[in-house]
Design a protein that fits this description.
Largest sheet: 10 strands, mixed
CATH architecture of the largest domain: 3-Layer(aba) Sandwich
Number of helices: 16
Structural class: alpha/beta
CATH class of the largest domain: Alpha Beta
Radius of gyration: 22 Å
Number of domains: 3
């Protein structure tokens, strides 16, 4: 586990106050890094970047006028005044090590975003799950209400896949990430916490460390605090911080009620505090978790920016989710292929619930576990999360720079599924090609095929689409 030092905010501020300085961004293809690159360029920095892979974000950055190289090279930092690195790059990474050897100041992505956020009236959405959707909904509401916010969100937002943008107002909507502990660097105007559940075992030794990270985040917030009343972890920290609540419990300040599943989405009533009349909200997505995210976003826009809840509800009706959030990536012959970023058991359970709400049919799930540490720590929670699936195909673990851990491989996870009498039938696929071949052998009209995971499993989607188009009627 890498030891993290307190960020040197004064040093970061000096560079932010030096427009025209060159900042090189290592791992810029990551969605969070790409968004920060766009914000820094908008502040007058000369941004360059590189990434080992070829994600779509590189094309988006280039279209925004930001040079983004494919591949890492120790020579890339040459001429840079300062460097921002993705938490996925370990200290011994050749490019990061080269910058350090040359004495170029290096800063974590989260600490730099926190410094940028300190210069704005920032609405920060945090939580183990749901923060991308909630922050995207909040930005959608503020944009529809004419508040002209800037935003930096860990998702590719329609219509052009932009994870960030600059608005004319002081408002900034951000997704505040806890994964590397940099959440404690933020002091936002508003804090919203969707849930607090143990995760990111590569950074936190246990639940207490994660909870303390969120505790400090809430304590450092200068204005309103909102937490989800449905989540025990968030609710407990909210009580300590004197936060307002949203959710389904009768005690919630912003109460969701009268939930109704509909074709293509979900309706509910949101009752604001103080005896105000409830507003009708139509969320164009299935799933109780999406209702909670919408309730939180409407409440945040109201308490922080004065947006009328009815205006917030109207914006949600036209909301389009980021990519890889219940995204239909292929359809044909009566078969629908859905890609989703879910990688924690709680997120997977919510996804399966949403799929069942969306309609009848058999569910085939292709799952790429994310990180050996998570697979080891939460292995026993994955089989019941897939309840309702007819078949689960396991792919090798997406390492995210980790080394294999005994007990944390996909073969180990397969043993967990087989030991759980209530788990769906599960098998191991050694590669993407094997998974595609097996799906093509199994699928039939009426099936929903889920591509589940936060790694590169999304690359299977176009292959399955081509198969459906080639073999369809």
């Amino acid at each position: 586990m890498e030891r993290q030092l307190e960020p040197d905010r004064a040093a970061i501020d000096r560079w932010l106050d030096a427009p025209g300085s060159r900042v090189h961004m290592m791992g810029v293809g990551g969605i969070g890094m790409a968004g920060l690159a766009r914000l820094l360029a908008g502040m007058g920095q000369r941004v360059t970047g590189c990434d080992a892979g070829t994600p779509r974000t590189l094309d988006w950055l280039r279209a925004e006028g930001i040079p983004a190289a494919t591949g890492h090279d120790p020579a890339h930092p040459d001429g840079a005044d300062w460097v921002v690195y993705s938490p996925a790059l370990a200290p011994e990474h050749p490019e990061r090590a080269a910058a350090a050897a040359r004495g170029i100041p290096l800063f974590r992505r989260g600490d730099v975003l926190a410094a940028v956020a300190a210069r704005k009236s920032t609405l920060a959405v945090a939580g183990t799950h749901g923060k991308t959707t909630t922050s995207a909904m909040l930005a959608c509401i503020l944009r529809a209400a004419g508040r002209e916010p800037s935003w930096c969100i860990g998702g590719e937002l329609p219509p052009d896949g932009a994870p960030a943008g600059s608005g004319a107002s002081p408002w900034l909507v951000i997704e505040a990430d806890e994964s590397d502990g940099s959440l404690v660097s933020y002091s936002p105007h508003l804090a919203l916490v969707t849930n607090v559940e143990y995760d990111h075992m590569e950074h936190f030794d246990g639940p207490a460390g994660l909870h303390d990270c969120f505790r400090r985040f809430l304590a450092q917030t200068t204005g309103p605090r909102l937490v989800c009343a449905d989540d025990p972890g968030a609710a407990a920290l909210g009580r300590e911080a004197g936060a307002a609540t949203y959710g389904f419990p009768e005690s919630a300040d912003w109460r969701a009620e009268d939930l109704r599943a509909e074709s293509g989405g979900t309706r509910f009533a949101l009752r604001p505090p103080g005896g105000a009349a409830p507003v009708e909200v139509a969320v164009p997505l299935p799933g109780r978790h999406n209702v909670l995210d919408a309730a939180g976003a409407i409440a945040a826009a109201a308490v922080a920016c004065g947006v009328d809840p009815a205006e917030g509800a109207a914006a949600i009706a036209g909301y389009r989710p980021p990519r890889r959030r219940f995204e239909t990536v292929a359809e044909g012959r009566g078969i629908r292929v859905i890609g989703d970023y879910a990688h924690h058991p709680t997120e997977i359970r919510a996804l399966l619930d949403a799929v069942r709400q969306a309609g009848e049919g058999r569910i085939l799930a292709v799952f790429q576990p994310h990180r050996y540490t998570r697979t080891l720590a939460l292995g026993g929670d994955f089989p019941p999360a897939f309840a309702g699936a007819a078949r689960v195909l396991l792919l090798p673990v997406y390492a995210a720079s980790e080394k294999p851990l005994a007990g944390g491989t996909s073969a180990d996870l397969l043993d967990r599924f087989r030991a759980d009498a209530g788990a769906p039938s599960t098998e191991l696929c050694g590669s993407f090609d094997d998974a595609v071949k097996r799906v093509a052998e199994l699928w039939r009209p009426g099936d929903r095929v889920l591509l589940v995971g936060a790694g590169d499993i999304e690359s299977i989607g176009p292959v399955l689409r081509n198969l459906l188009e080639r073999t369809g009627p």
